[in-house]
Give the backbone structure.
Amino acid sequence: MLLEVKNLYKSYVLGQKKISILQGVDLSVTEGEFISIMGPSGSGKSTLLHILGELDTPDQGAYTFNKKNMLSLSDTERSWVRAHWIGFVFQTFDLLPELDVVENISLPFLYNKINPKQRDEQVKEAIDKVGLTHRKKHRPSELSGGEMQRVAIARALAVNPKLILADEPTGNLDSKSSQHILNLFQELHLAGTTIIMVTHDGNVAAVSERILHMTDGCLQ
């Protein structure tokens, strides 16, 4: 088992009101799985993804990833896990406009210290995987939406993560670009990459091998 969460609860306080987001979530993921989590806006999908990616912490529950108790880690240890084990792909791409493709993909290595030669080899390999070798010196303003999302995926892949977390990765793309991205995720899955994808679109979720539904903070 690569990842397991048990009885996760998470709430936020807005003003004097407490809003429950996750209400006893259980999830187990084996290495190499491709899972989609579906649900309406506000159901808790993104909050769960942020907890799995060590961007947020639950109020209660247990989370084990790669045989480590993730909720017992220090801030420094959590940063190390994010830099070495987890790749993130967001709906908004989150590319730096002043950097070209190679420089954007190299960003995770600011926190993942390896020798420059190995870094360059991993960045090149990631660019090749997403088919952007011919665009590697272009900046985001010179790329289409689909190309920018491929850069974001390459950035996630560059550190050879154990897990890719994708939050609505096709949400800002047209249908043709979306299909290219989904084809790429399928190729990565077939190559053994573990992927957890959040989406509200059933057609997008259909490319994964297991679909879970989240309603009112609970996984169905």
